[in-house]
Amino acid sequence: MPTTLPAPPLRPRPTRALALLTACILAASSFASTALPPMLDLSKAGGTSEPIDFFNLPIIAGEHTFVSHGNAPWGFRNHSYLAFHDGQYWAMWSQGTAVEDRVGQRVAYATSKDGLLWSEGAFLSPEPKGYGPTSPLFGQRTAEGFRYIARGFWQREGELLALASLDEAGGFFGPSLNLHAFRWNPADRTWQDAGVVAEDTINNFPPVQMANGEWAMVRRDHQRNVSFLFGGIKSPADWTNVPLVRYQAADGFRPEEPLLWTLPTGRVMGFYRDNSHSKRIFRAWSDDHGRTWTVPERTNFPDATSKLFGLKSSRGWYALISNANPALLQRNPLCLAVSADGVTFTQLARLPVPTSPMDLRPREGVRKAAGFQYPHAIERDGHLLVVYSRNMTTIEVIRIPLDEIERLLRNEAPTTP
Asked: Which residue in 127, 169, 187, 235 has its CB near the most CB atoms, within 10 A?
């Protein structure tokens, strides 16, 4: 058996596009091709069919640094993103009270010349509708107050846009949910409100360009249903919406925090975290630039029910960063998988994240697991930079030479620090 974990059966794909009024898919596409090969196959690179021992995976070589530490009353740090623009690195994250996504939460940022030494953090979003630290609602979960959530950097036509959702802080998500943009003004070094990019929308990652030149991103509405947006050419708010999956699916699938990338053939791949705790990643694909999609299929790639991120490198291979260990109530370790084709991953390693016994303890009084989570990454100057949150209280960065990832892809031992 090529995979190291039992592969659950794949959900059937449609033979032609149709509306599934009673199922989870709102739009699907017809394909003559056969089903994709398994998403995880470690045997191709000399692995075994034994269960994965996640804490004895090879540790890829790299450097570690801190970006921002939590401090009262702003103890919460999560939803981190990276970009390289105008000669420097940029990081952004959600910053709030000791519990995530409460009234008054804002978006902060920092910059760095080398990706290792970072400036002090500063806010790029204003106080949400006046609910700052002096408000009696600050830090509460209530529909009477609002919060910003960091949603990534969008580099469009030479400008740097910082995306942030804004909605009521009463749950996930409020009916006023909109995706906003803030434009960096290099002349006076300030962020200027650029307005609403998409209504009733929270994205997971900033727009990426498809093979046809259009921008694309996946959105959730305030009821958490998933749609695909394409466009972004005429203006940052120019989008066509393609409904994909209802959050409350008939078969139990609860799609969350989707990821996109494009294969050399132009096929767009979509990957989903599953909030029904199947502990597997789901995937779907489109051969017409996102106009129609296959039914999401349950893969054999393990997942801790956490946010994942991946990209195609300048050297052609694909990297997926995730909490692949499916154990309960933790997000540890933070793993990196490598694929030569963007479909099947043949190597799995741990990122060089410093750990302590505290990182294995459950977080008391909150619903999220302990560990290292919500990663994002960019490639620059022969390195992969990965940003993530530790226990939702600090923002940290790992810088990994691309040569080390290629060693992993060739099944060679990592360089000894």
From this structure: 169
